[in-house]
Amino acid sequence: MAQLGLTERELRAWRTSFRMVELLRARIEQQLQADSGLSNADYTVLALLSEAPDRRMRSYELGRAAGWEKSRMHHQLTRMSRRGLIARERCGSRGIYSVLTEVGLAALKEAVPGHAQEVRRLFIERLTPEELEQFADLATKILSNLEADQPPR
Asked: pTM here?
């Protein structure tokens, strides 16, 4: 019997993809914590800042790039600031820059090799180059729809 108004094929695709994302997230989180003491959220922020000009971004831009709500980003940046991974700098009368510190950059550089190895082991190596390309195309199609369908903030 179809659940949620979905056919068996649709239900299988949905449940499989949802479970895959959840397990990948958990495994990546475990690896990062064990090897570097960083959370996946820490790693995401550090990686985004490392790619930004002058290793700094306005906090709202950082939130948009990560796809996070304003309050989640605020709390994450507060925790990271306390640990010295990022610094906050005023930008005009109301803006705040989040800046990658040397401590944060060192933590990211330490975490990257193990993280990349785990991503490769759990995900990349399980697919042929052609399947990887197809997967990226399909995920992009769904992601584009999700981003276009977001309620206004």
From this structure: 0.86
